[in-house]
């Protein structure tokens, strides 16, 4: 199905993507005054089932981002969950998906502000396409662009306008031959990738920038910290990390909903570990895959099934 023919949720109803238009003067488009989420759905061929991962956590973060922008998500988390499930069913997805809820300032006028602007809410869902080549690892550089500080544009909120910061860093990195950028915060500590949180392994412990390092408080980040502590009995330390610690790490990896868990082979041309996937990242990837596909009973509450059990599989077989 082409994107324009797919079903979206906008203006309080399900409609075709190409019917849900916004005007050229829309505030969110002109001033970046919107916030959004990225949610993944994982398809299991053997079960004919689509599992949406940590839906509630994403909608809770959307509410938090909206609050920072003086907005209010018009529906409760439970209503959002139901609409998302229905959206996936209406699109009859039988592959991995990416779901993009979006709330934005919808006034069509001139004048930058946050207050007294009407809001619009939408959810788009589309087939997922890989963000990185999972098997290759990433050669990254430290960006010359700094992560916007909380005193300027809060990274804690997933604000559309903040992605100019990410886009500047990502293009600089890729146009210079790297796969991804690592951004430092204004005071020179490691913050995160252009759209991923960062972890490193040093001295047998897992380290990640704490939430005061201008990071997006990633849903995958929290999942990884949980799996590392509970399943691998690793110490996880949230703290300020220096740039040169990157160069001496045993392993470094990035995490994000779209990106998944990606190991880093080099930083600024310095090889990390053996230049391949290290033992910690390999174990975490395996655990994450099991959890996202609903294989692990313990983590079943992290996934929400789109289809009634086996209904989709039966429907497919009868075709
Ligand atoms: C700037 C930034 N940091 C981190 C992340 C990872 O967050 P999550 O794991 O919730 O997708 C993302 C992805 O959305 C991001 O855009």
Task: Describe the overall structure.
By secondary structure, the chain is of the alpha+beta class. It folds into 2 domains: 127 residues, Aminotransferase class 4, branched-chain amino acid transferase, N-terminal domain (D-amino Acid Aminotransferase, Chain A, domain 1, 2-Layer Sandwich); 155 residues, D-amino Acid Aminotransferase, Chain A, domain 2 (Alpha-Beta Barrel), CATH 3.20.10.10. It contains 8 helices and 17 strands. Strands 8, 9, 10, 11, 12, 13, 14, 15 and 16 form a 9-stranded mixed sheet that branches. Strands 1, 2, 3, 4, 5, 6, 7 and 17 form an 8-stranded antiparallel sheet that branches. The longest helix is centred in the first third of the chain and has 14 residues. It is globular, with a radius of gyration of 20 Å. The two termini are 17 Å apart. The model has no long low-confidence stretch (mean pLDDT 95). The structure holds pyridoxal-5'-phosphate. Pyridoxal-5'-phosphate (PLP) binds next to helix 5 and strand 14.
Detail the topology: elements first, then pairings.
Elements: E1 7-10, E2 13-16, H1 27-31, E3 34-36, E4 39-44, E5 49-53, H2 55-68, H3 77-90, E6 97-105, E7 119-127, E8 138-146, H4 163-175, E9 180-184, E10 190-193, E11 197-202, E12 205-209, H5 219-232, E13 236-239, H6 243-247, E14 251-256, E15 260-267, E16 270-271, H7 279-292, E17 303-305, H8 311-317
Parallel strand pairs: 8-9, 8-15, 12-13
Antiparallel strand pairs: 1-2, 1-7, 3-6, 4-5, 4-6, 5-17, 6-7, 9-10, 11-12, 11-14, 14-15, 15-16
Helix pairs in contact: 2-3, 5-7
The protein binds pyridoxal-5'-phosphate.
